[in-house]
Design a protein that fits this description.
Length: about 150
């Protein structure tokens, strides 16, 4: 079976079985390993080859389901799970740099409700802190593959 076929099969499976807690232990373990193998291949295509064959949204569905399985069955977690590390899966061609202001991700936000939920979480965190601060958002389109901050001097 090709990677594309396996991916389609997994995405269909996730749609039909949105709650992994309802899977029997054998099917859960099989699905878990299948997700790992599939995501490792997609990571290679994305991070090394710069040639992804699925959308970010589809990848996020697979990755999220993998994380859900790990939450309900931590005994299944293996060191090669994409949730554990991306070491060895990222192209060596880019240098790391410290940023004066952190570049924060919107954690897979796909619509206005996701942004509203993120805003609510941030406000709750700030309410609990001793800091009285104000903040603002700057939303910019995400371009796949790299985070970049350019400072003109």
């Amino acid at each position: 079976m090709t990677l594309s076929e396996t991916t389609i099969e997994l995405l269909d499976f996730i749609k039909q079985n949105p709650n992994p807690t309802l899977l029997d232990s054998d099917l859960l373990a099989h699905t878990y390993q299948n997700l790992i193998d599939t995501l490792i291949e997609h990571n290679h295509l994305y991070y090394i080859e710069s040639s992804p064959i699925i959308s970010d949204y589809e990848y996020d569905q697979l990755f999220s389901y993998l994380k859900n399985i790990e939450e309900i069955a931590p005994h299944l977690i293996t060191s090669n799970s994409p949730t554990q590390s991306l070491i060895g899966q990222i192209s060596e061609g880019f240098a790391k740099a410290d940023h004066r202001t952190p570049l924060l991700s919107l954690e897979n936000s796909y619509n206005a409700q996701d942004l509203t939920n993120r805003d609510t979480r941030i406000k709750k965190i700030l309410e609990k802190s001793d800091q009285n601060c104000s903040f603002f958002y700057r939303l910019e389109p995400k371009f796949d593959g790299i985070s970049c901050e350019i400072i003109y001097q």
